[in-house]
Write a structure and sequence with these properties.
By secondary structure, the protein is α/β, with parallel strands linked by helices. The protein contains 14 helices and 12 strands. It has a 7-stranded mixed sheet with strand order 2-8-7-6-5-3-4, with helices on both faces. A 3-stranded antiparallel sheet has the order 9-12-11, with helices on one face. α8 links the parallel β5 and β6. α13 packs across α14. The chain is globular. The relative contact order is 0.16. The structure holds pyridoxal-5'-phosphate.
Length: 394
């Protein structure tokens, strides 16, 4: 059975990921794993909080009847009620269980929302740099991704977004704290996005993808998107907040201020079913509801951000200091980011080119690596920079 042309094209376009992965394997075999510094993967390197594992054990031991049965496609009612109560407390908005859908992580949540709102040819505005999977998620549901660059600080440029809106624009997909830049959108930024949507002339929804919202630094508390943007749907996930990306648990929170909230809830519930998720993991729904506000400690990520940002900027790299998430997004010393990635590879350093995030001229480093590995990689970063500047060995 031949594969679809669209998938063949997608695989071809993302073949650089495979090539990078293969290059990593080759380098590790050639030089020994201790001489390869892999900064490519955004996979939490901390364990889930002990409290969460204790809740999981309690729930398994309790073995409440029907814990493993089919359930409403939106998820267990009492779990959605618990989340609605929390969101109502934080935002002052009248959330109920009928605004919350439990999902297979943020990836599942975004696909469900897009399936629920897009007709073929509808447009979704995405701000570059963006999480590379967004294009595939939008195209999964017949949508067209319209890319709008952010400003020098990686914050939304409302003038450019306004110019990109057409009669087919259904949604603006934002991501704060951001992958790959670590930018955290403040109240002012969210207010200007709200104004933009209110002035748009037709219904446009802001879908705010917030899987990193528990990971902010320097005591910054990200504002509640739904308190500021009335036409909002927030997609959330515990993948990063509890370091459990393999467990696939998140939610969609539909703003009670959306006039079409009931229809959207029903559409998302149907989409969750027919996309084949059926419902989010039963056990993990019960765990996250009972675990409440438990979060991983963001301090180790902040310490690694400080260490690597300080070391690289002192060498001469230009990097906007991230306020959250677990990445650095330095400017490439060469305009051709892929060429610079090759210089880093010669030093055994693996990084993702900015082109992969719709923003050539930059590269992404993940902070989910041991600090001692970061320390050992620094001479390589220095040599690659000097080589790019043309006054070092190349
Ligand atoms: C911006 C962004 N959105 C969504 C996801 C998907 O997260 P999840 O594991 O919750 O599906 C990721 C994962 O890295 C991400 O970086």
């Amino acid at each position: 059975m031949g594969i679809a042309k669209t998938i063949a094209t997608n695989l071809e376009q993302s073949s650089w990921i495979r090539r990078m992965f293969e290059e990593g394997i080759r380098l590790k075999a050639e030089r020994g794993p201790e001489h390869v510094y892999d900064f490519t993967l955004g996979n939490p390197d901390v364990e889930p909080p002990a409290e969460v594992i204790a809740v999981l054990e309690r729930i398994v031991a309790r073995n409440r009847p029907r814990s493993h049965a089919y359930m409403p496609n939106a998820g267990f009612r009492e779990v959605r009620e618990a989340i609605a109560r929390k969101l109502a407390g934080r935002t002052g908005l009248p959330y109920t269980e009928d605004h919350i859908l439990m999902t297979a992580g943020a990836a599942g949540a975004i696909n469900v929302v897009l399936k629920a709102v897009l007709d073929p040819g509808d447009e979704v505005i995405v701000l570059a740099p963006y999480f590379a999977e967004y294009r595939f998620y939008i195209e999964n549901h017949g949508g067209v991704m319209a890319v709008v660059p952010t400003d020098d600080g990686f914050l939304p440029d409302t003038g450019k977004i306004r110019a990109a809106i057409t009669s087919r624009t259904k949604a603006i997909l934002i991501n704060t704290p951001n992958n790959p830049t670590g930018a955290v959108y403040g109240t002012g930024v969210l207010r200007s996005l709200n104004e933009l949507v209110e002035e748009a002339g037709h219904a446009i929804t802001i879908v705010s993808d917030e899987p990193y919202v528990a990971l902010t630094f320097d005591g910054v508390e990200p504002p509640e998107t739904a308190s500021i943007i009335s036409r909002s749907v927030v997609t959330y996930s515990w993948s990063k907040a509890l370091a459990i990306p393999g467990e696939r648990i998140g939610y969609i929170a539909i703003s009670p201020l959306l006039p079409e909230a009931v229809d959207l809830f029903n559409a998302c519930t149907f989409a969750n079913r027919v996309l084949g998720f059926v419902n989010a993991s039963a056990i993990w729904q019960l765990v996250v509801a009972e675990a409440g506000d438990v979060r991983v400690d963001a301090t180790p990520y902040q310490q690694k951000r400080d260490f690597l940002w300080d070391a690289l900027t002192r060498m001469g790299y230009e990097i906007v200091k991230p306020g959250g998430a677990f990445y650095l997004f330095p400017k490439s010393p060469l305009p051709d980011d892929v060429a610079f990635i090759r210089l880093l590879q010669k030093e055994g350093i693996l990084a993702v080119p900015g082109s992969g995030f719709g923003t050539p001229g930059y590269f992404r480093l993940s902070l989910t690596v041991p600090k001692e590995m970061m320390e050992r990689s620094l001479p390589g970063f220095e040599r690659a920079l000097r080589a790019a500047e043309g006054n070092g060995p190349s």
